[in-house]
Write a structure and sequence with these properties.
Elements: H1 3-17, H2 24-45, E1 51-52, E2 57-58, E3 63-65, E4 70-72, E5 77-78, E6 83-85, E7 92-94, E8 99-100, E9 105-107, E10 120-122, E11 127-128, E12 133-135, E13 140-142, E14 147-148, E15 153-155, E16 157-159, E17 172-174, E18 177-179, E19 184-185, E20 190-191, E21 196-197, E22 202-203, E23 208-209, E24 217-220, E25 225-229
Parallel strand pairs: 1-4, 2-5, 3-6, 4-7, 5-8, 6-9, 7-10, 8-11, 9-12, 10-13, 11-14, 12-15, 13-18, 14-19, 15-20, 18-21, 19-22, 20-23, 22-24
Antiparallel strand pairs: 16-17, 24-25
Helix pairs in contact: 1-2
GO molecular function: acyltransferase activity
InterPro entries: Hexapep, Hexapeptide_acetyltransf, Trimer_LpxA-like_sf
Protein name: Acyltransferase
Length: about 230
C-alpha cells in the first residue's frame, strides 16, 4: 500500500470510528486533493534526491536544500513549511514511513560557511512533530518507532567558552545525539550534545536532557532526572 492509499484508509477508519461515515465522501475528496498535490511536489523533488524508494509527500512552502545529499525510504511525509538542509558529511537519511512535522528545521551545516556537519539518520516508522529543530552538525541518530512531540529541540554541538575572549571566535565542539528504538520524546523537550536516549525511554514534556538515560526509563525536569521505569 502506498502512502496515499495508507493515509486515505487510515482517515476513513477514524471517520468511521467517530460515527461520521456519512461525511466520508466530502472528507475523502478534501484529503485526496491535499495528498495529490503533495505527491506532485514529491514527483518533482524525487529525481533531485540521492535516492528515494517511492513518491514522497511534500507539503506547501517546504524548503529542501542540497537534495542530492538526502536519501528517503518509502511512504515519507514532509509537512507544510518544513526546511531540510541536506549538505553534510554523511547526508540526511530517512527510513520507511517517516513523517516530518510542519515548520520543522533540520540543519547539519550552516548555509554560508564553517565545516560540513555530520548529518541525520532516522529509522523506520518514526515521526518528528511540528516546530521541531534538529541541529545535527555533530550527528543525530533516531531509531525505529520513535515519536518526537511538537517543538522538540536537539543540539549536537556546543559553543566553546573556556577562554575569556569573544565566545563566537572560540568555535564549537561536536558530540553526537542518539535516540534508540521505541522512545517517546514529549513536546518541548531539549536534548543536548553527547546524549543517548536508550531504548524504550520516555521523556516528559519540557524536560532538558543533559545526560544519557537507562533503558526503559522515564525522565522529567530541568535538568532531566529519572523518575521511574516503564
Amino acid at each position: 500500500m502506498n502512502a496515499i492509499q495508507r493515509l486515505v484508509t487510515e482517515q476513513r477508519a477514524r471517520v468511521r470510528d467517530a460515527g461520521r461515515e456519512r461525511e466520508w465522501t466530502r472528507v475523502s475528496a478534501a484529503l485526496s486533493m491535499k495528498v495529490g498535490r503533495m505527491a506532485l511536489r514529491g514527483l518533482v523533488l524525487r529525481p533531485q534526491l540521492k535516492s528515494c524508494a517511492g513518491i514522497p509527500l511534500i507539503g506547501r512552502r517546504t524548503v529542501i536544500r542540497n537534495p542530492s545529499f538526502i536519501q528517503l525510504g518509502s511512504q515519507n511525509v514532509v509537512e507544510d513549511g518544513a526546511e531540510i538542509q541536506g549538505l553534510s558529511r554523511d547526508g540526511i537519511r530517512f527510513g520507511n514511513m517517516v513523517s516530518i512535522g510542519g515548520h520543522t528545521m533540520i540543519r547539519p551545516s550552516s548555509y554560508y560557511s564553517r565545516d560540513l556537519g555530520v548529518g541525520l539518520l532516522v529509522g523506520d516508522n518514526s515521526s518528528i512533530g511540528p516546530q521541531g529543530y534538529i541541529g545535527c552538525s555533530g550527528g543525530v541518530t533516531i531509531g525505529n518507532n520513535v515519536m518526537l512531540g511538537p517543538g522538540v529541540r536537539m543540539f549536537s554541538e556546543n559553543h566553546n567558552f573556556e577562554g575569556p575572549g569573544d565566545i563566537k571566535s572560540q568555535g564549537v565542539a561536536w558530540a553526537p545525539i542518539t535516540i534508540e528504538d521505541d522512545c517517546w520524546i514529549a513536546s518541548g523537550v531539549t536534548i543536548t550534545a553527547g546524549v543517548t536516549i536508550r531504548r524504550g525511554s520516555v521523556v516528559a514534556a519540557g524536560a532538558v536532557v543533559t545526560k544519557s538515560t537507562d533503558e526503559q526509563s522515564i525522565m522529567a525536569g530541568i535538568p532531566a532526572k529519572k523518575i521511574g521505569n516503564r
